[in-house]
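Tokens in:
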């Protein structure tokens, strides 16, 4: 027979769950550099990739964790910049993120770029769309399709 104590606990649990649901952000498209493309987004997906884009090397680290790299560390280079962003979606979405180096006026000459990406799905690629290794700037495009979660941490090394 349920006691008053049980009712109290159920009420507390109910309120807690309700608050968690309310607190969950219901963002639809753009947050920072991350945007939803395709039918549910504000932009068309990039089905044609310009030949000038440089595809980054993709390595699967864990399920849902990928690293995209370009270039190589050299003696004397250093971490020049690190940028992070993330977003969650109520249903699977095709997502594009852009990351630009430098964020301030002058950048170091880049040697190595490493972008760590988390997504709930497998389908993804990353490109350097402008600049890159041996240059003082770089624009990165990350594509993550059919994902409910997206996060990146981009590291730029240079001298
Ligand atoms: C992502 O979806 C787009 C649009 O359907 C498709 O063109 C592309 O090949 C997919 N995968 C990647 C990694 O871009």
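Residues out:
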């Amino acid at each position: 027979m349920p006691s008053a104590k049980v009712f109290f606990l159920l009420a507390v649990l109910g309120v807690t769950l309700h608050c968690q649901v309310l607190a969950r952000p219901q963002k639809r498209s753009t947050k920072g550099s991350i945007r939803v493309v395709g039918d549910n987004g504000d932009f068309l997906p990039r089905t044609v990739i310009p030949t000038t884009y440089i595809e980054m090397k993709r390595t699967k680290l864990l399920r849902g964790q990928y690293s995209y790299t370009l270039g190589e560390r050299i003696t004397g280079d250093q971490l020049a910049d690190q940028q992070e962003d993330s977003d969650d979606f109520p249903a699977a979405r095709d997502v594009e993120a852009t990351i630009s180096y430098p964020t301030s006026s002058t950048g170091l000459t880049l040697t190595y770029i490493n972008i760590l990406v988390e997504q709930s799905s497998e389908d993804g690629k990353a490109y350097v769309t402008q600049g890159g290794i041996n240059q003082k700037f770089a624009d990165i495009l990350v594509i993550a399709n059919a994902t409910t979660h997206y996060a990146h941490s981009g590291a730029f090394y240079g001298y």
